[in-house]
């Protein structure tokens, strides 16, 4: 009868180390049932779950492995595995698997501990932990750096809704961001990203900037705040704000877009996603003249926003056509997914305001970016401690892959 043995090897990494051990196993016709290897600061940890056939003598294989370990200067240990226990492990594919991504300017042992404790308290086992961000130079200013760690965890099905709340509570109390995703086929196969524009791709609300040019900033800003916090119906608030812009000259409007500051990381995330073959759009309750400017500047594919009505070179205080509100954004996301031949599970929606919740809720990955509390509470993923390019970490992309 064959034997199953777990082989653990640790020590200083060196060229040909894995090749040396697996060569010995191959000579004895051993079958590798599972394998995992990690290297941290030139220190290796290699695990091999092997089946030793009945025709081979385990003592001879283990002796050869011990000799190889001595020759390479590593530590090696062996553990016999009950075949029945192994058979039970083969059913683990039925367990719910999660990917939890931590984001921040600086992640400490405290942050890792809190996430680990939350997973453990809900009987989730941590299968793997990797660092997505580059190593941070010790003297580098925190403001110039992003840190990201990704956990892969598994547990009983279904995952409790309380786990999400506990992870969100950890994020609120620790000053970092946490993304919570089911690890399925769609997580690494998303190809359409839509961004809100105001306070997402750019750092300001365009209508507030227009209001400043028209001399009605305070009145418009207050209505904007109420609408974004979900305290005023969007269409009502939008029409009230636009009405206050009546008489604003075309020349002032045309000069505005190039003065609007992009959000941190906006150029990097859009450039990278385009290089990776993503289709990118703007779904905005703001104005199309800014959206079209950003579409060209950032090489985007789609823009849907509101068109400010002009007459005789001045704003009339009205908008043309249907208002792009929250429901319209969700509808447009569905239409774009269908146009691109994608399921909604393959889409990503990023926004900050209450009117972004409909599209965030139906996207495969919905992200609250620098969001109002009502949005952050309802989204499974949030980015507020780093720039918009933190989205790349939520997609599992490592800094070293981009360099």
Q: In which range does the helix fraction lie? A: 25-40%
Question: What share of the residues does DSSP label as strand, in percent?
Answer: 25-35%
Instruction: Identify the CATH class of the largest domain.
Output: Alpha Beta
Q: Count helical runs.
A: 16
Mean pLDDT: 91
- Domain tally: 3
Main β-sheet, spatial strand arrangement: 12-11-10-9-13-14-15
Can you describe this structure?
With 403 residues, the protein is an alpha/beta fold. It has 3 domains: 3-89, 2-Layer Sandwich (Alpha-Beta Plaits), CATH 3.30.70.260; 95-182, 2-Layer Sandwich (Alpha-Beta Plaits), CATH 3.30.70.260; 192-204 and 261-402, Rossmann fold, CATH 3.40.50. It is 37% helix and 27% strand. The strands form 3 sheets. It has a 7-stranded mixed beta sheet with strand order 12-11-10-9-13-14-15, sandwiched between helices. The chain has a 4-stranded antiparallel beta sheet with strand order 2-3-1-4, covered by helices on one side. A 4-stranded antiparallel beta sheet has the order 6-7-5-8, covered by helices on one side. Helix 11 links the parallel strand 10 and strand 11 (302-311). Helix 1 packs antiparallel against helix 2 and helix 4 (109-121) runs antiparallel to helix 5. The two termini are 50 Å apart.
